[in-house]
Amino acid sequence: MEEKNVVLSKEGNIAVITINRPKALNALNTETLLELNNVIEAVELDDEVYAVILTGAGEKAFVAGADISEMKNMTVVEGRKFGKLGNKVFRRIENLEKPVIAALNGFTLGGGCELAMSCDIRIASTKAKFGQPEAGLGITPGFGGTQRMARLVGMGMAKELIFTGKMIDANEALRIGLVNSVFEPEKLMEEARALANSIALNAPIAVRLCKSAINRGIQCDIDTALMYETEVFGECFATEDQKEGMTAFVERRAKNFKNR
Ligand code: CAA
């Protein structure tokens, strides 16, 4: 069977996506980005998937960046095309109508850190290392790093990380808010699954609308953002799951959401 650079598996209502080029520390080449795009599309269309976990194969890396061997001889046109592809796929993850948890099991560098930042929640193993080393390679971060890093950890910290290209460990990533929590390596996937399952127990449409409201709202002024919140709040009352959630509460019974 053909070896895949991106593997999709399903566990109940959870999809696990694994970047699978461990010999190259899961570096993102064009082929891998295209496969990731296809897998995201499959997840997008699967109504049974309520939450997604994204991780890297092997012991060493989540993703050690965009593929340097592929980029080395790129022309301006090719560089732009490659950047556009990465940005398109990562934006698709950011806009995916399901929550995405990045389980960061090792090196999370360059395009890997950018991929992690396009996810909704990041958790890391104590072995993970983070950084945007691009300036040391003569380039800028090209898959969203110059934009999402500052939004996530603030402009000063983002500039320090990006200008120096230094690597930080998981505890420092936790301290600056780049990741939400840190676990021993052998516990990471268990914790990712527990987190995904605790989200998947809630009404999927409500979770989707929460993601949309947070992502959209952060980009605009507070009045526009609150108007959007009011819109999606109202929309919830058209769902069966709202009736079910509130009826179950009143009747003091377990709820049974149907994603409708
Ligand atoms: N691209 C291509 N191959 C990579 C890679 C990358 N980003 N990162 C690692 N590899 C390959 C290595 O070339 C090596 O392959 P070979 O065995 O065939 O030589 C293999 O993975 C193992 O790597 P190392 O031998 O280097 O492992 P190490 O433990 O000594 O070092 C590391 C680990 C510190 C992560 C080091 O591999 C490294 O610095 N990698 C590059 C990190 C980086 O600069 N990432 C940013 C890329 S640019 C980018 O991402 C642009 C963007 O924003 C879009």
Describe the structure.
- With 260 residues, the protein is of the alpha/beta class.
- The chain folds into two domains: 6-200, Alpha-Beta Complex (2-enoyl-CoA Hydratase, Chain A, domain 1); 204-251, Lyase 2-enoyl-coa Hydratase, Chain  A, domain 2 (Orthogonal Bundle), CATH 1.10.12.10.
- The chain has eleven helices and ten strands.
- The chain has a six-stranded mixed sheet, sandwiched between helices. A four-stranded mixed sheet has the order 4-6-8-9.
- Strand 2 (14-19), helix 1 and strand 3 form a beta-alpha-beta unit.
- The longest helix is centred in the N-terminal third of the chain and has 20 residues, at 76-95.
- The chain starts with 5 loop residues before the first strand and ends in a 10-residue tail after the last helix.
- Acetoacetyl-coenzyme A (CAA) binds at residues 24-25, 27, 64-69, 86, 107, 109-111, 114, 133-134, 137, 141-143, 145.
Strand and helix layout:
Blueprint: E1 6-11, E2 14-19, H1 30-45, E3 51-56, E4 61-63, H2 68-71, H3 76-95, E5 100-104, E6 107-109, H4 111-117, E7 121-125, E8 129-131, H5 145-153, H6 155-164, E9 168-169, H7 170-176, E10 181-183, H8 188-200, H9 204-217, H10 222-236, H11 240-250
Parallel strand pairs: 2-3, 3-5, 4-6, 5-7, 6-8, 7-10
Antiparallel strand pairs: 1-2, 8-9
Helix pairs in contact: 1-3, 4-5, 5-6, 9-10
Bound molecules: acetoacetyl-coenzyme A.
Please list the strands of the largest sheet in the order they lie side by side.
1-2-3-5-7-10
Number of domains: 2
The parts where pLDDT drops under 50 for at least 5 residues are none
What is the general shape?
Answer: globular
Q: Which architecture of the largest domain per CATH?
A: Alpha-Beta Complex
- Please state the average pLDDT score: 97
Termini separation: 38 Å
**Helix fraction by DSSP (H/I, runs of at least 4):** 40-55%
What's the SSE pattern? EEHEEHHEEHEEHHEHEHHHH
CATH homologous superfamily of the largest domain, by name?
2-enoyl-CoA Hydratase, Chain A, domain 1
Bound molecules: acetoacetyl-coenzyme A
CATH domain topology of the largest domain: 2-enoyl-CoA Hydratase, Chain A, domain 1
Sheet with most strands: 6 strands, mixed
Rounded to an integer in angstroms, the radius of gyration calculated over CA atoms is 19 Å
Just give the CATH class of the largest domain.
Alpha Beta
The portion of residues forming beta strands comes to: 15-25%
Number of helical regions: 11
